[in-house]
Amino acid sequence: MTYIVTENCIKCKFMDCIEVCPVDCFYEGENMLVIHPDECIDCGVCEPECPAEAIVPDTEPDTEKWLEVNTKYATSWPNITSKKDPPADAEEWNGKPGKEEYFSPSPGEGT
What is the pTM of this model? Predict the structure, then answer.
């Protein structure tokens, strides 16, 4: 099992999860974060820290697609180890359905 970041992180990117990760397995895209499944130690400390509730175990139903997204982009996006400010409109996007269409494959800045 590993933890993964799912659709609700898109355009929210709160980053509270980054500060608690003991192994720095988060990677930053332009408008979301992902977890590197091979680096995650399954400790679960990031899950309750996510205000968007976008982090789940990969054993949850219907997470196969998001496991693939996390796996793919964790190898091309920069690692992020420090929390930054979320997008100004993050609260407006939190919980909105259908955010997958807004996903950007572009990398973020990392730290």
Answer: 0.95
The tens digit of pLDDT for each residue in 50-87 reads 999 999 999 999 999 999 999 999 999 999 999 999 99
CA distances from 53 to 4, 8, 49, 76, 84 (A): 11, 7, 8, 24, 18
Domains defined along the chain, listed by start: 3-82 (3.30.70.20)
- Dump pLDDT digits (tens) for 17-29: 999 999 999 999 9
Q: What are phi and psi of 25, to 5 degrees?
A: -100, 20
CA–CA gap between residue 106 and residue 102 (Å, rounded): 12
Q: What is the DSSP letter of 90?
A: H
